[in-house]
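Good morning N.,

You mentioned wanting to compare the apo and holo forms, so I went ahead and generated the holo version with biotin. This is what I fed in:
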Amino acid sequence: METLFIGKNILFLTEVDSTNTYAMNLLRNVNTIEGTLIYTNHQTHGRGQRGAVWKADIASNLTFSVILKPQFLSSEKSFYLSKITALAIYDVLTEILKDSQYDIKIKWPNDILVNQKKIAGILIENTLNQTMLNYSVIGIGLNVNQTEFNTEFKAVSLKALKNIDFERKDVLAKLCQHLEKWYLRLRENKLSIINESYISRLFGLKELLEYTEIKTQRRFKAKIEGVEFSGKLVLRELGTNKLLVFDLKELKFPL
Ligand code: BTN
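and this is what came out, ligand included:
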């Protein structure tokens, strides 16, 4: 692994309920070095955002968690971890898919899309020390060699896009390198490059799309204007020209 600390220490599990759950339990019991990676070929209870399940064929995809210690970050800035993880996956995909026919985008808050289909998801869980973050578990699911999906959203994998099998450990190594690069930028407080990069790669940026407010089921047309530093999405509504701000579970995208 050509990194300083991410993925230097790898814990391989043939089968586990969820690498995130395993990592969170590990942190409760032992002192774990930063960058430790929990990797498995089979999650029996893979967890997704908003209590969803994350399914992946056995030994086909990447399902793993990285333990970080972002003790320099206040909990109100925890969304930066989502941003850097999304940016790392984005960079890996750009490196692998170097071809203009692939439209790689980050769908707020942190899905990664290629040609409007989901290729990766992120689940981050933190422990706090008063107002500061203590440990973070960065869970990543990236579709690599699976070609059939029965998900309620449109999904895709590297193999489905390129028609070749990928060596998962090579993709994992790239992910560790790019995650470390972005994490070091965060540690150095280079927030504007992180913000600008994240915003510019967002699906729907400055595009007029129809959204649904989950609570009221109200549909409206709007353009993404930006993301607040707390992670909330800022939209400008067509017609009224008002700025609307949405928290993580409040908005449905037109996909
Ligand atoms: C999403 O809903 O998009 C997030 C999916 C996150 C899946 C990964 S797979 C490795 C890690 N362990 C889990 O249980 N979930 C994350």
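The CA atoms of residues 98 and 251 lie 32 Å apart.

Happy to go through it together on a call whenever suits you.

Best,
F.
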